[in-house]
Amino acid sequence: MIPSRTGPPSVPTERPIGTATGRTTGRSFARRSPHARPRSRRLAAILAAVGVLLLAGACGPLATADVPRFDYRRDATYAVPAGGALNVRWSLDLDAVGLTPGQVEETNLTWIPAGTRAESANVANRLVTLADPQVEDGWQVRLWQARLEREPAAGGYAYRLDVELRVDVPESAWDLTRRVSGRLAGRAGDGTSFTFLVRAE
């Protein structure tokens, strides 16, 4: 005759996934992939690189926008903080720099859309250069950009040359006014002269 059990019926105990059986230490033994840490490091590196690129893209235009821009007038005076820079820009015809439509068309330029009908191409140091720059020691003048814009017209194209100069002023120039001069020259060396004053404040 089998004796009857007097104790309560046994109930299976639920354990979290990954908990070791046989000991009641409560320690987790969940398996970790050996590739988890390298993958997380690669992901962190990628995110950091993307963040740097986004920051550079956000700061670049702001830094350029901080530089004051002026429309060119001969013998005009432009004010700029000492240690800063300024841009001077104006538009010219082709013949002002000694260029012809034929010289433009025979040059392998990369034209991109500019508006609904026009196209523009970078011609700095290809068709247009800065010649005979004259500035004070420690100052600098550069051809910042030169873009040629063309638009269909009767018998060909109508052209406009947009140029921009950058003048860098040293910190030691505080309270000084100095002249900046030079020439914008085409391929043949002909060109147009410019001159203006910069006052460091």
Give the tally of structural domains: 2
The second-level CATH architecture of the largest domain is Sandwich
Q: What is the CATH superfamily of the largest domain?
A: Immunoglobulins
Instruction: Please name the CATH topology of the largest domain.
Output: Immunoglobulin-like
CATH class of the largest domain: Mainly Beta
Largest sheet: 6 strands, mixed
Order of helices and strands: HEEEHEEEEEEE
Q: Over all CA atoms, what is the radius of gyration? A: 35 Å
Average the pLDDT over all residues and give the rounded result.
80
| Class from helix and strand fractions | alpha+beta
Helix content: 10-25%
Distance between the termini: 113 Å
Give a count of the beta strands, DSSP E runs of length 2 or more: 10
Annotation field: number of helices: 2
The coarse overall form would be globular
DSSP strand (E) fraction?
35-45%
Stretches where pLDDT is under 50 for at least 5 consecutive residues are 1-30, 49-63
The order of strands across the largest sheet is: 1-3-8-7-5-4
